[in-house]
Amino acid sequence: MARPGGWNKNGLEFNDTGNELRFFVLGRNQGAEELPIGALTQQHPSHSTKVKEATIQLLESRDVLNPGKDLAVGIRATQAFVETTCQQWGIPAEFLRKVRKPGSLPWFSHRVAEDTSNGTTPPKMKALNVCFRWGQGHSSYIVMFGRYDAQSSTLKVFLSSRAVAEDVRVLELFSAHTCILRKHPLQLLGILMGMCERYVDMRVERQNTENLEVGGMLAVQATDWLKSWHIEVCRAPNKSQVIYAAYDMTNWLDKSCKELISIGKQYLTLAVHLEAQYRVIIPTEEVQDVVHRAELHSHMLQYIKRMVRSQFDSYNNLLAREESKHSAVISEASAGIAEASYRDSLSMKTISYLTMVFFPITFVSAIFSTSIFDFQQWDATAANSGVISPGWWVFVLSCGLVTVLTLAVWRFWQALAERQKKLDRLRSSDLEKGSEESTAF
Question: Nearest 10 degrees: CA dihedral of 295, 299, 305, 307?
Answer without folding.
Answer: -150
